[in-house]
Write a structure and sequence with these properties.
The complex is a heterodimer of chains A (108) and B (554). Chain A has one domain. The relative contact order of chain A is 0.14. In chain A, α2 packs antiparallel against α4. Chain A is an all-alpha fold. By secondary structure, chain B is mostly helical. Chain B has a single domain, classed as Sodium/glucose cotransporter. Helix content of chain B is 77%, strand content 0%. Chain B has 21 helices and no strands. Chain B is globular. Chain B starts with a helix and ends in a 10-residue tail after the last helix. Classes of the chains: A mainly alpha (108), B mainly alpha (554). At the A-B interface, α1, α2, α3 and α4 of A face α6, α10, α11, α13 and α20 of B.
């Protein structure tokens, strides 16, 4: 008994389909790795703000006023964007293909 | 319906006309700039009313009203999400923060952006696969709907109310300044337009108003940034050199400074900014407007791109304002100091004048106002969904409500929210509401997000755990904000703060998780067995879309 409205036959078919374990395993491993990466980069940045103020204020080169903090900030923003792109590309191709097969097999 | 719409629109224009006419003679003498802004604003309102009229003809069902019929494409939704996120608070607020403190402004931009990858990796497609209209449905998917959806609806309404106050007060002050109409009328005008968009056009109108505004804002901000950079032959080094020379804090603006005073504040703010986004009801509801999980994913990718680009622009705008606004007696109260005529949120508006003269300032002012209008409309719709779909239809009436009745209740709810927003805007007029956005993010990160995340990822979560965790997180976040320096000391003038930190998330968010965990593992009720038993089926649906509307084609 659950509260979840569900087609038990299809549900059971999916749970027992090895492709489902493959999809969930691969997609979640990928998603959690990327999430961890974002967290590390972002909290690394936060710790620099808390403890490394002087480092962020280092000039980019001798005699310049631009500091290293700016490219670092822009790097965090760009990385976030690029990682979302990576995830979407893989999810919309490989993972969705696998997903479609699983659903199709459940409907047979 | 259409006739009613025409009447309301006509009344609105008439009242606007008279409000402006009353002030017009004084206005012309005082400042010539306001006419451009006024005409452009009326033009924008005209366009949005046409959009609303078109949207009204396509808003027949609850699915149309809450989710635009699920027919928004990924690119459109990406723009709309970006529009929800690029509020006046981020456009005027962040650029003014950079203007005042330099590098510190970047901390907010970065924090607000990195919430998006997390939403994509963990939340977006699961939300699309499990829910229809509100995130409360998803949080309660396998749990007992009554208590969990009541909590999630309350969490939504707290966020919506806080956000609305910040936007309404900002709108009133901005309109008062630019169009020279009285604060009270300005707030009422915003409330009235918001009610028209939401009640008549629902999600279709709200989305398209947001898209139009997002495009205008991106174009406007790009032009300002281009104008600034061209002053310095596109050399950031030259721009920074000039900024250091003229800013009272000089070289200190090139590194983090006083804004984030200690490590605990930094981490606590970082947590709220990053995870708060994943608990904002008006953002989460956008994932129900696209046809499937694939489109939900793509829309986050587009939104992250637009938002990231926009934040980089606001940064250039902030530094541009240091170099071109703070040095001009036309904009500052006193040369050599930073205080701006018209208040400290006006850096971007003044800069637009420095870059492009009266006409361009008019355009940017109208865009800033449009931004507020679009954002409050999205908020009102999120609040109306929580009231009509979660509280009324599901909790009070146990889903025994006809579609027509639910639609009527949701429209009444948006009307009521509009009135409440106006009242709150008037009540908070003289208050400094800068802390509201911080409070909203702390509440979203400590109440809504933990419940949503645990319900998706932890099979052990029970109804009791979700409710305890949610209310504790929400309550502690609000309490610590009130007892903290921003409200207790700066706003209420009650002396030294009882809670020493400005940002409560580092404390309230873990407490929410701890309570949710503790109250779940000790829960031996029958209800808890039912909660846990549903996890596997929920997981199949959230991962594969089995049983979800518009799931992967088969």
């Amino acid at each position: 008994m659950t509260r979840v409205p569900v087609d038990h036959d299809k549900n059971l078919h999916i749970i027992n389909n090895p492709k489902y374990a493959e999809l969930v395993g691969q997609r979640n491993a990928f998603a959690f790795t990327l999430s961890a990466l974002v967290l590390i980069i972002y909290f690394g940045f936060i710790f620099l703000i808390a403890y490394g103020k002087a480092f962020l204020g280092t000039p980019l080169a001798e005699g310049m006023v631009s500091t290293i903090g700016f490219p670092i900030g822009v790097f965090v923003i760009l990385t976030a964007f690029i990682l979302t792109g990576l995830y979407v590309r893989r999810a919309n191709t490989r993972f969705d293909d696998l997903n479609r097969e699983i659903i199709k097999e459940a409907h047979q | 319906m259409t006739r009613l719409f025409h009447t309301v629109a006509a009344l609105l224009f008439a009242s606007m006309g008279s409000a402006f006419a009353a002030d017009a003679p004084v206005q012309i003498e005082a400042q010539g700039t306001n006419h451009e802004a006024l005409y452009m604003f009326i033009f924008f309102v005209g366009i949005t009313l046409l959009i609303t009229k078109w949207a009204a003809s396509r808003t027949k069902t609850t699915k149309d009203f809450y989710a635009a019929g699920g027919g928004i494409t990924a690119a459109q939704n990406g723009l709309a999400i970006a529009g929800d996120y690029m509020s006046a608070a981020s456009f005027l607020g962040i650029s003014s923060l950079v203007y005042a403190s330099g590098y510190d402004g970047l901390v907010y931009s970065v924090g607000w952006l990195v919430g998006w990858p997390i939403i994509l990796f963990l939340i977006a497609e699961r939300l699309r696969n499990l829910g229809k209209y509100t995130f409360a449905e998803v949080a309660a998917f396998r749990l007992s709907h009554g208590p969990v959806r009541t909590f999630a609806a309350i969490g939504s309404l707290v966020v919506v109310a806080g956000y609305l106050i910040a936007q309404m007060v900002g709108a009133g002050q901005l309109i008062k300044l630019i169009f020279n109409i009285e604060y009270t009328y300005a707030v009422m005008l915003v409330g009235a337009l918001m009610i028209v968009y939401v009640t008549f056009g629902g999600m279709v109108a709200t989305t398209w108003v947001q898209i139009v505004k997002a495009c205008l804002l991106l174009i406007g901000a790009s032009i300002i940034a281009f104008g600034v950079l061209s002053e310095f032959n596109f050399s950031f080094e030259a721009m920074f050199a000039k900024a250091i020379e003229v800013h009272p804090k000089h070289g200190a603006i090139m590194e983090p400074g006083t804004l984030i005073s200690n490590p605990i504040e930094a981490v606590s703010l970082g947590l709220a900014l990053m995870f708060g986004t994943a608990g904002l009801p008006h953002i989460l509801m956008r994932f129900f407007t696209v046809p499937d999980a694939k489109a939900a994913r793509k829309s986050v990718f587009y939104a992250t791109g637009f938002i990231g680009y926009f934040y980089i622009l606001t940064f250039i705008i902030g530094f541009g304002a240091i170099t071109m606004v703070s040095t001009n007696p036309e904009y500052v109260v006193e040369l050599g100091k930073l205080a701006l005529k018209g208040g400290n949120n006006m850096a971007a508006i003044h800069l637009s004048h420095a870059v492009g003269g009266d006409l361009f300032k008019g355009f940017i002012s109208a865009v800033a106002f449009a931004t507020i209008l679009a954002v409050v409309s999205g908020l009102a719709l999120a609040g109306a969904s929580a009231i009509a779909h979660d509280l009324y239809t599901n909790v009070m009436r146990k889903d025994q409500v006809s579609e027509a009745e639910e639609l009527r209740v949701s429209k009444l709810a948006s009307l009521a929210l509009g009135v409440i927003a106006v009242v709150l805007g008037i009540v908070f007029e003289k208050q400094n509401v800068a802390y509201m956005v911080g409070l909203v993010f702390a509440v979203a990160a400590s109440g809504n997000f933990p419940v949503l995340a645990l319900s998706l990822f932890w099979s052990g979560l029970t109804t009791r755990g979700a409710v305890w965790g949610g209310y504790v997180g929400l309550g502690v976040a609000v309490l610590l904000t009130v007892l903290g320096p921003t409200v207790w000391t700066d706003t209420m003038h009650m002396g030294p703060a009882i809670f020493p930190f400005k940002n409560p998330a580092l404390f309230s968010m873990p407490l929410a998780f701890i309570f949710a965990w503790l109250m779940s593992i000790t829960d031996k009720s029958e209800c808890a067995d039912l909660d846990r038993a549903g996890y596997e089926s929920q997981k199949v649906r959230s991962e594969t879309g089995l049983g979800a509307e518009g799931a992967v084609a088969h």
